[in-house]
């Protein structure tokens, strides 16, 4: 990442100012990160995407509402409203030109909403983004830990639960990988992260029925170690969305761009290359 020039800007949206890091120039390509973490989870993959892309690209790495260096989230929101905030960003970043969207978990959920409108997106890559609501056992676990998050922040058992959900044991044992997550957790306020948890995880809706409304070519990426979006789940979702396919990346849990950047980059680059074929966009 240090070899690529970076420009940072704040983009006003209905959910506050979002922090955006722009790298390179060319086709607009937006990367939106997972819950709890921020745009630095993309740092390992962007150089490979930049060097491997057949065309020049402007990569825009956005910290989601209430996370990273974006403005604190001060009220309850929803993924639908986060998608509207993303549209606010696109109006500034790429007026009149659809973007290639790459979203990890929360970012994939936002992308699924945007993908119903071909004027917003040219394509969608949704990484580790379950289309169903959270499972009852996870809902119960969150209910137990949410008060501690509000009171003390992502420490102790809360931090352990987040890291366990984000990273495989092997990834968590790597100090450099773990530090990216730890640094991300320190940036938001306790209140902001709590509001984001409620808004974008606990209140997440089932969007399975809406997959048929997808209007852009899509790649659904599962890992081999995330129970709530298995390879079979991703395949079923791809079967429901027009012009979608699914792939699986081994050796990762939720933060596939951080854990397996090279394998993920290869799949994304192949997907992008296919978009320019005559029959790719239908």
Automatic annotation (TrEMBL):
Gene3D superfamilies: alpha/beta hydrolase. Residues 36-266 form the AB hydrolase-1 domain. It comes from the Bacteria. InterPro entries: AB_hydrolase (IPR050471), AB_hydrolase_1 (IPR000073), AB_hydrolase_fold (IPR029058). Coiled coil: none annotated. GO terms for molecular function: catalytic activity. This is Pimeloyl-ACP methyl ester carboxylesterase. It comes from Microbacterium pygmaeum.
């Amino acid at each position: 990442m240090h070899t690529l020039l970076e420009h940072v800007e704040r983009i006003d949206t209905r959910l506050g100012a979002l922090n955006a890091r722009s790298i390179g120039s060319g086709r607009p390509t937006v990367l939106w990160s997972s819950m709890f973490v921020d745009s630095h989870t993309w740092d390992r993959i962007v150089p490979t995407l930049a060097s491997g892309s057949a065309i020049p690209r402007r990569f825009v790495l956005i910290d989601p509402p209430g996370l990273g260096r974006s403005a604190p989230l001060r009220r309850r929101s929803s993924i639908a409203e986060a998608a509207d905030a993303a549209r606010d960003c696109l109006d500034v970043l790429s007026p009149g030109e659809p973007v290639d969207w790459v979203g990890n978990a929360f970012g994939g959920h936002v992308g699924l909403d945007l993908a119903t409108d071909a004027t917003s997106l040219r394509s969608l890559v949704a990484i580790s983004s379950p289309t169903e609501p959270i499972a009852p056992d996870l809902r119960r676990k969150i209910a137990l830990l949410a008060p501690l998050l509000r009171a003390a922040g992502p420490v102790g058992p809360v931090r352990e639960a987040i890291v366990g959900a984000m990273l495989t044991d092997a990834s968590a044992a790597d100090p450099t990988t773990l530090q990216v997550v730890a640094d991300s957790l320190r940036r938001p306020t306790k209140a902001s992260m709590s509001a984001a948890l409620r808004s974008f995880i606990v209140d997440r809706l089932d969007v399975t029925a809406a997959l048929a409304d997808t209007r852009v070519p899509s790649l659904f990426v599962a890992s081999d170690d995330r129970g709530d979006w298995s390879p079979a789940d991703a395949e079923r979702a791809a079967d429901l969305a027009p012009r979608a396919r699914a792939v699986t990346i081994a050796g990762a849990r939720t933060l596939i761009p951080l854990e397996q950047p090279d394998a993920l980059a290869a799949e994304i680059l192949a997907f992008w290359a296919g978009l320019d074929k005559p029959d790719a966009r239908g």
